[in-house]
Specification:
440 residues; alpha+beta; Alpha-Beta Plaits; 3 domains; five-stranded antiparallel beta sheet; four-stranded antiparallel beta sheet; EC 5.2.1.8; peptidyl-prolyl cis-trans isomerase activity
Length: 440
């Protein structure tokens, strides 16, 4: 057997494998013998089928199977021993379809190879980060949302501003008709028509004017998509069936227990501190996500590395056969290229810093997520073994795909943590309200 790699340019090469009969003959003969022991052919007792007959009947398929297996093993071994940095895996050249499996003894296989050149990480670039400061408006909005979410719903006879009105919405000169719930605080023009109404009242209004030409609001009211509501207009009739009003929940022990667990908070002062702490944690988590995206975008946009574009497109087509068309690959090629560059950057950081994820870390992280789903701050001693079994079962599902996903996520977190140490993060103080208004 002879394997050679001929580099055609900085990012492309051709891998050639030459096989002689001696390289595969013994493997084929061994497989024929194994098949003879298991084959069930009419006229022969099990395990007594002559090897010659097996070879005559199934020899070609066994030959193809063993050669393909040998090629995979030897190519993988060659790539590892020679430390060849590949994009994906070698792709067979079309000429290999001309092989005569019936008569050929020696074979030559050629593969197109995409090479990933070495590169330097642009760690001298600075990235923006955010330190979130809670403002009073954000706190007040949180209180309003909590009181409304845990408040009691009543059905008064007459509507007031802020109520939700349930009824039948019908297009006057059209086919649309549906039961819906109209929030009066989303009405922009003609709000007075929705205040003071009772069951049985009919409201006529221009739907686009009423909701300020806001397709998102129209989608919310009609249940249609924003794309469909873009063409929705004209006069509508709304027949009131009932009024829904939410009375705000009181700040008492019942509410404290619903939010944070039995007696975890017992005073309004403790409740306020806990609310602020929770909001701050949520914003800090989102700010960290923004910083992570900024790091990824900065490195991807500034890394100086060439990729084998034509090979990459072909590899995407082959590995996604039936799922991606040539047109889709061309249309989204910039996105695929950025994903590839980030993967290269991530692998380089892992290699240079010898980052690893242990099995214990994977299992522990999985259990933490399961606990969070059940709102459990810690695992009770009597449930420890059961929780460990649940985690193991989950990680083994989908042929271990869940384990791989968890491993990759933890590894990516370690990569980003290492990059935050090495890059300059310019932290900007910003209010929670202003942070919400930023476009990311």
């Amino acid at each position: 057997m002879n394997i050679t790699l001929n580099q055609t340019d900085s990012t492309n090469a051709q891998l050639k494998v030459v096989l002689e009969e001696a390289d595969y003959a013994s493997k084929v003969d061994q497989q024929v013998k194994e098949f003879s022991k298991k084959a069930q052919i009419k006229g022969f007792r099990p395990g007594k089928v002559p090897a010659g007959l097996v070879k005559k009947m199934y020899g070609k398929s066994i030959l193809v199977e063993q050669i393909n297996k040998l090629l995979q093993e030897e190519i993988s071994k060659y790539i590892k021993e020679n430390d060849v940095k590949l994009l994906g895996e070698p792709l067979p050249e079309p000429s290999q379809s001309n092989i005569d499996w019936d008569t050929q003894k020696d074979f030559e296989f050629t593969y197109a190879v995409g090479l990933l050149p070495d590169f330097n990480l642009p760690l001298d670039k600075s990235v923006d980060g955010y330190a979130i400061e809670l403002d009073q408006k954000t706190i007040e909005e949180a209180y309003e949302n909590i009181k409304r979410q845990f408040g009691k719903t009543t059905n008064p006879e007459t509507s007031e501003e802020g109520d939700f009105i349930y009824g039948d919405l019908k297009q006057v000169d059209g086919e649309f008709e549906s039961k819906t719930l109209i929030p009066t605080n989303r009405v922009v023009a003609g709000k007075e028509q929705f205040v003071g109404v009772k069951a049985g009242d009919v409201i006529k209004f221009d739907i686009r004017k009423a909701f300020g030409d806001d397709n998102a609001a129209l989608a919310h009211v009609t249940g249609l998509s924003k794309e469909v509501t873009a063409d929705l207009n004209g006069e509508f009739e709304f027949t009131v069936e009932k009024i829904n009003r939410t009375e705000e929940a009181e700040l008492n022990q019942e509410l404290f227990d619903k939010l944070f667990g039995k007696d975890a908070v017992t005073t309004e002062e403790e409740f306020d501190a806990k609310i602020r702490e929770t909001i701050k944690e949520n914003y800090d988590r989102e700010a960290d996500n923004v910083l992570n995206r900024n790091i990824i975008d900065t490195l991807v946009d500034n890394v100086a590395v060439d990729i084998p574009a034509d090979f990459f497109k072909r590899w995407l087509q082959v590995t996604n056969e039936g799922r991606l068309t040539t047109e889709q690959i061309e249309e989204n090629f910039d996105k695929y290229t950025k994903e590839l560059k980030w993967s290269m950057i991530k692998n380089k950081v892992v290699e240079e810093n010898e980052l690893k994820v242990s099995n214990d870390e994977v299992v522990s992280s999985t259990k933490e997520k399961m606990m969070a789903q059940f709102n459990m701050p810690e695992i009770p001693e009597e449930l420890a073994e059961s929780m460990n079994n649940y985690a193991q079962q989950y990680l083994q599902q989908d042929n271990g795909r869940n384990y791989i996903n968890e491993y990759e996520q933890l590894l990516a977190e370690k990569v980003l943590a290492k990059l935050k140490e090495k890059m300059t993060v310019v932290e900007k103080s910003i209010s929670a309200e202003d942070f919400r208004n930023l476009s990311f």
